[in-house]
């Protein structure tokens, strides 16, 4: 049974969102009273100040999660399922409000933010359904002597770390399977976007999540807070979404504690357009794979390899489509491209574009930052990009599409795979055999065939190589939060069976 959600958001804008730390029984200030400011990247306006947790708060939060673990693990799957289902209903009932909060603190256009709310909510619904389908196995040893009964148990208290680019969906993609499996959590959201996570936590409380199951520490000192959890010996699992560089630091810490690890890390997605592709479909696919979230997505197409016969036509049409996109404050009607997250992100994009231009690339559109307040950068298409440009080996995380012609498929595959990352690849062709052949040869965890979108809660999201370990979503998403336990039970007449 689900509660009837209240369709009215608590307050307009970010007003009314808790700004403290969620520790055990409730919300509180940082123990040393510290706070930090959350800024709107479109205007520079300070939206709120939130508690800035330190080591003592981190310890308390983990203690809260540890204390709640045993009783939470014993709850009925249906009980956990219904909490998630209520949270789904509440998130969807407050879709407009949550979208506005996200646009305010992160910058993405309102329409995209609404899409993220629906995507994020779907993880709550998906895992509410998975919670009641956790199953084990039963078999007999080869010699017939013993029964083997395999059960699944929650791994225990989890450390969850999320980035700023999809603040709601990256939260629910971890929290929902952890709740479904019966794990307690300490969550550290990105400091640029804590308000979305805090609003979600309030909704989960309203949905009936018991005290101590979810604990949240906002902090400007991630390294200290998280290291504290990792070295505690009490956290059993780390689930991290963020850059490969930070993922490696956390994997080293996890090794010392032999912790289960799920890593959703960076990408450098190739986008291959074969000579037989439908160019309209490829251009539209490129716009979605490049421009979702202003290019600040791990799935963003980073390198566009286009067959030389259609490279010019594709580049010009892509440039024309990108030039039409409306750049501005994501709250404004009709805006399709919001600001980048901060000044450093914008400077990084400009440095990469300048490097490519200095090596002979041509900007078909964009290429210079937009003046005025906010961290805006225009949609940019670069042609004739030299293969040794920094753009090709760096995750751009901005609205820049470099187009590189290729001669044959072997060359396209070799270039596509010539990277340490392996999250996602895109390919466009009208030949089904070619589609299967190329997707098998791409060293990635996900392939978009004639589409620029792969993310879906029903699908296993994740990468290979340095893009990560494990999968989020789909049927396997809950496995990341479960351990196997096997019971060995001798059969009554096993000795007899074994001797036959
Ligand atoms: P980031 O710098 O790695 O930060 C991610 C999170 O880790 C933040 O909450 C950050 O907090 C925290 N963090 C940083 N240093 C830490 C440390 N030493 N110990 C513990 N936590 C630490 O990444 P980002 O710039 O926020 O996000 C962009 C990256 O995420 C990109 O590479 C993108 O591809 C990747 N990403 C991957 C996926 C995926 O599913 N594969 C999805 C989204 C994003 P502070 O900011 O306070 O340092």
TrEMBL record:
GO terms for biological process: gamma-aminobutyric acid catabolic process. Pfam families: Aldedh. The active site is at residue 264. The keyword Oxidoreductase applies. PROSITE patterns: ALDEHYDE_DEHYDR_GLU. InterPro entries: Ald_DH/histidinol_DH, Ald_DH_C, Ald_DH_CS_GLU, Ald_DH_N, Aldehyde_DH_dom, Aldehyde_DH_Superfamily. GO terms for molecular function: succinate-semialdehyde dehydrogenase (NAD+) activity. SUPFAM superfamilies: ALDH-like. CDD domains: ALDH_F5_SSADH_GabD (cd07103). Residues 27-486 form the Aldehyde dehydrogenase domain. Keywords: Oxidoreductase. The keyword Oxidoreductase applies. Belongs to the aldehyde dehydrogenase family. This is NAD-dependent succinate-semialdehyde dehydrogenase. It comes from Mycolicibacterium poriferae.
């Amino acid at each position: 049974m689900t509660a009837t959600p209240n369709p009215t958001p608590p307050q307009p804008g970010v007003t009314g969102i808790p700004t403290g730390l969620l520790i055990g029984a409730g919300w509180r200030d940082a123990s040393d009273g510290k706070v930090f400011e959350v800024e709107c990247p479109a205007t520079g306006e300070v939206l709120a100040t939130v508690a800035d947790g330190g080591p003592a708060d981190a310890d308390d939060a983990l203690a809260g999660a540890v204390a709640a673990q045993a009783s939470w693990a014993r709850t009925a799957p249906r009980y956990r399922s219904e909490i998630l289902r209520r949270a789904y209903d509440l998130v969807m009932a407050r879709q407009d409000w949550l979208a506005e909060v996200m646009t305010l603190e992160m910058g993405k256009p309102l329409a995209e933010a609404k899409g993220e709310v629906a995507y994020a909510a779907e993880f709550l619904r998906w895992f509410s359904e998975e919670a009641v389908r956790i199953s084990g196995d039963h078999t007999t040893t080869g010699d017939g002597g013993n029964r083997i009964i395999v059960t699944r148990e929650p791994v225990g208290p989890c450390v969850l770390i999320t980035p700023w680019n999809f603040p709601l969906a990256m939260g629910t993609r971890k929290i929902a399977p952890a709740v479904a499996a019966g794990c307690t959590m300490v969550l550290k959201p990105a400091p640029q976007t804590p308000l979305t996570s805090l609003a979600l936590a309030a909704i989960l409380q309203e949905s009936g999540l018991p005290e101590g199951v979810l604990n949240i520490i906002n902090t400007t000192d991630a390294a200290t807070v998280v290291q504290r959890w990792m070295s505690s010996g009490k956290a059993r699992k780390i689930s991290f979404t963020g850059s490969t560089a930070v993922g490696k630091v956390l994997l080293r810490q996890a090794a010392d504690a032999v912790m289960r690890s799920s890593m959703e890390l960076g990408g450098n997605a190739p986008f291959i357009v074969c000579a037989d592709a439908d160019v309209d479909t490829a251009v539209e696919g490129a716009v979605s794979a490049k421009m979702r979230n202003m290019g600040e997505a791990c799935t963003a197409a980073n390198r566009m390899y286009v067959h030389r016969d259609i490279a010019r036509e594709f580049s010009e049409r892509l440039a024309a489509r990108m030039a039409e996109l409306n750049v501005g404050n994501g709250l404004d009607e009709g805006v399709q491209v919001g600001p980048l997250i901060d000044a450093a992100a914008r400077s990084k994009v400009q440095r990469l574009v300048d490097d490519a231009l200095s090596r002979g690339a041509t900007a078909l559109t964009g290429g210079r930052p937009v003046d005025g307040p906010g961290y805006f950068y225009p949609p940019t298409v670069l042609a004739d990009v030299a293969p040794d440009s920094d753009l090709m080996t760096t995750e751009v995380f901005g609205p820049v599409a470099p187009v590189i012609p290729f001669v044959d498929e072997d060359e396209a595959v070799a270039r596509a795979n010539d990277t340490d990352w392996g999250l996602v690849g895109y390919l466009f062709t009208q030949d089904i055999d070619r589609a299967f052949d190329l997707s098998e040869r791409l060293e990635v965890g996900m392939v978009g065939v004639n589409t620029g979108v792969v993310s879906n809660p029903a699908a296993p999201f994740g990468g290979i190589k340095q893009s990560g370990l494990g999968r989020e979503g789909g049927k396997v998403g809950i496995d990341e939060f479960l351990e196997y336990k096997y019971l060995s039970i001798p059969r009554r007449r096993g000795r007899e069976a074994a001797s036959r």
